[in-house]
Design goal:
With 705 residues, the chain is α+β, with helices and mostly antiparallel strands. It contains 28 helices and 14 strands. The chain is 52% helix and 8% strand. It comes from Diversispora epigaea.
């Protein structure tokens, strides 16, 4: 009989076991052994060098986990604040190792460093867990997540203190931010788990066991173990495939798909499939996984493999309407129906994401429509394990219209991620809403150039009714959130799902038909087009007449002045002064002093603007402010102030100031004092800048320059 102690050993998880192994130094005896051989100054850091490497590796892994986080991003953000602080402290410790010689020789410090490593491992594991649905379920309920989060924060702060690392995160304001992040994420997760459906979460609020089975199959396919039973797809006896009792015109779709009927009466699509012997097992394993995916109501069912007239076929659920693309080309789809279709497709993507499966080709052509108008995600030709690199996809040109910008520069080399999938889903939503292929009038190079610069498809507002306008507005905001160029702010699938779920609840399906004759719903309705600009970060609220003022760039205003378009220039300078532009202040002062553009002068206001710009270092403003002292009403001329600003302008490179100051010094016009040396210096500077007046004075006085 094994002892309880033996049982406990066997129950230790692999993560815990590896932690214990790495933490074996965390006792005084081991620490003394590790530090006992140190003697020479500088040797004290040697035992820490591998520890620095371990911490750096852990931080890299944490960053990777965070980059791939699908859920609870706010919780992860709070922990990443700590990770970033720890990374800074470690780098600082490495850089100042000589100054930390005493700490490095301290046995307690050595043990504390190992404890710090354990805390970082715990943070890594926690982020990995809460950022995925299957990992989140390990905590069973929200309180467990909260307790673990709070204990990690306490452990981190304690460990940082033990190592004498300082941060600005240990305060009430930060704790408030942490708790708000925690509560926000847990509330969102609760909504999500309650609405996602039983094909992902069962009645006990646990991840469906089918998803666990899929994960096991995928792991076996990617890393096969010796002496394991080969993974195989279901095989259907050809005798069980019957011809339909009543034929239809579309019983054959192209040369590869034929409709048959199973014994239970289900219509099925039999699609020719040639399996190459070299890849036969890999394909069969993939098809076995595909068979499990049928548990999702919104993924086209794969029944298995069979034969028709000695030809290998894949047997799928029959989709009466064909693809969603075929549907929208034939019919006008009602707006409420579009909401439900979008939500159903999103459910399929959530199911795949939970299984860590990427589809790689999200578009309406790969969504099949049943007799009941239920969308089913299909065509998993390129679907594969999440960690695999994108293989050679021959249809790159076909899918580029839906492709994420980060994939466009080199689709074969750049790794495809779930964030790419979200972008493609955003394009699918646009395609569904407007019932047309994206960028229809652009070629591949034009699309790449447009999207890589941040451009997106136009948003055409359909103004038939207030309900339609509201639905469109909500849809457009979801699309824009999925279109973000920066993957770090691109919406998560959970965020999109919850918004679609809320939209579907507000506008449930009614008695109006889902599919209407083409041209009957949208043919004559007023359309308002909104161009999504290069930033593609947010959409103006179409329910309001929301416009931003047109601000003419300062450079355009100066160019307008050169072209004597004084009205445009004045408008530009007047607007840019509001932004506290020192150059705009100078130009506005110049226009007020010259009476441009309408002949009205305001020397007092001009003087004030010149001084503000002059004090900000604008040489032209310093010149004009100096001379404005002569003739501005209410200002007493001060020659010292005048010379001071004129000198600043001359030293700042203003040619006119250099000439005037040189002339005044050279001819004794300043305070009655003649200073040939200073005058010559400034005249030479102006002459070197080809000022004809300065050149004449120097030549008349036979002074070389």
């Amino acid at each position: 009989m094994p002892s309880n102690k033996d049982k406990e050993k066997r129950n230790i998880s692999q993560d815990d076991a590896s932690h214990k192994k790495d933490a074996s130094i965390s006792n005084p005896e081991s620490a003394r052994n590790a530090l006992g051989v140190l003697g020479v100054v500088g040797d004290a850091v040697q035992p820490y060098l591998p520890l620095f490497t371990i911490v750096t590796t852990i931080i890299t892994e944490i960053n990777n986990n965070y980059a791939n986080a699908k859920y609870n991003k706010n919780i992860c953000n709070s922990l990443m604040d700590r990770v970033n602080a720890a990374e800074f402290s470690i780098k600082n410790l490495e850089r100042r190792k000589n100054e930390n010689e005493k700490n490095f020789r301290d046995e307690g410090y050595f043990i504390a460093f190992h404890r710090f490593i354990e805390v970082m491992k715990n943070i890594k594991q926690f982020i990995a867990n809460v950022s995925t649905l299957s990992g989140f379920q390990k905590y069973f309920h929200a309180n467990s997540v909260k307790e673990k989060f709070e204990s990690l924060i306490i452990e981190f702060e304690s460990s940082m203190n033990d190592l004498h690392f300082t941060t600005n995160l240990h305060n009430e304001e930060q704790r408030k931010i942490d708790h708000e992040s925690l509560d926000s994420d847990l509330q969102e997760m609760a909504k999500f788990l309650n609405t996602i459906g039983e094909n992902v979460i069962d009645t006990n609020q646990q991840v469906n066991t089918v998803l666990t089975e899929i994960m096991i199959l995928k792991n076996q396919m990617v890393s096969p173990k010796p002496n394991t039973t080969p993974i195989t797809a279901n095989v259907i006896d050809p005798k069980d495939l019957k011809d339909p009792q009543v034929g239809r015109p579309d019983d054959r779709r192209g040369s590869t798909v034929v409709r048959k009927m199973l014994n239970n009466g289900d219509d099925v699509a039999c699609k020719n499939k040639q399996i190459v012997d070299a890849e036969g097992q890999k394909i069969k394993a993939h098809l076995a996984i595909l068979g499990k995916l049928k548990e999702s109501r919104n993924i086209l069912k794969f029944y298995g493999l069979s034969k028709i007239e000695d030809q290998n076929v894949m047997v799928f659920e029959w989709a009466d309407y064909g693809s969603l693309q075929e549907v929208y080309l034939k019919y006008d789809i009602g707006w409420r129906s579009k909401i439900q279709m979008a939500l159903d497709i999103c459910r399929a993507l959530v199911f795949l994401q939970t299984c860590d499966i990427l589809h790689h080709d999200i578009r309406c052509a790969n969504v099949m429509m049943t007799k009941q108008s239920v969308p089913k995600l299909s065509n998993f030709k390129y679907a594969r394990h999440n960690s695999q690199a994108t293989t050679d996809i021959k249809e790159i040109t076909n899918i580029l219209r839906w492709m994420a910008p980060e994939k466009m520069p080199d689709p074969k080399k750049v790794r495809y991620t779930f964030k790419c999938e979200i972008f493609s889903f955003g394009m699918l939503l646009w395609e569904l809403l407007f019932q047309k292929i994206p960028y229809k009038n652009k070629d591949m190079n034009q699309i790449k150039d447009h999207v890589l610069k941040g451009g997106r498809e136009n948003i055409d507002m359909n103004c038939s009714s207030q309900e339609t306008r509201t639905i469109q507005n909500k849809f457009f905001k979801i699309i824009i959130s999925a279109w973000q160029q920066d993957i770090n702010i691109r919406a998560s699938l959970m965020e999109i799902f919850l918004k679609l779920q809320k939209l579907a609840a507000n506008y449930p399906m009614d008695t109006s038909p889902t599919l209407n004759p083409h041209g009957t719903l949208y043919g004559s309705q007023k359309v308002e087009s909104i161009s999504i600009g290069t930033s593609a970060t947010e959409l103006p609220d179409p329910s309001q007449n929301f416009t931003l003022p047109t601000i003419i760039p300062l450079e355009e205003g100066i160019e307008a002045h050169k072209n004597k378009d004084h009205k445009k220039a004045w408008s530009c300078f007047n607007e840019n002064v509001k932004f506290n532009s020192k150059v705009a202040k100078y130009w506005m002062g110049y226009y007020l002093s010259e009476g441009l553009p309408d002949g009205k002068k305001d020397p007092v206001q001009a003087n004030l603007l010149f001084k503000e710009a002059a004090d900000d270092g604008i040489a032209d403003a310093q010149l004009h402010y100096a001379f404005s002292l002569f003739n501005t009403p209410g200002i007493k001329f001060d020659p010292k102030v005048f010379v001071s600003y004129l000198t600043k302008a001359a030293n700042g490179g203003n040619i006119s100031a250099q000439y005037n100051l040189g002339d005044m010094y050279f001819n004794g016009k300043i305070l009655g004092i003649k200073d040939i040396e200073s005058g010559t210096k400034f005249l030479k500077l102006a002459a070197l800048n080809n000022d004809p007046r300065s050149i004449k004075i120097l030549k008349d006085n036979k002074i070389d320059f």
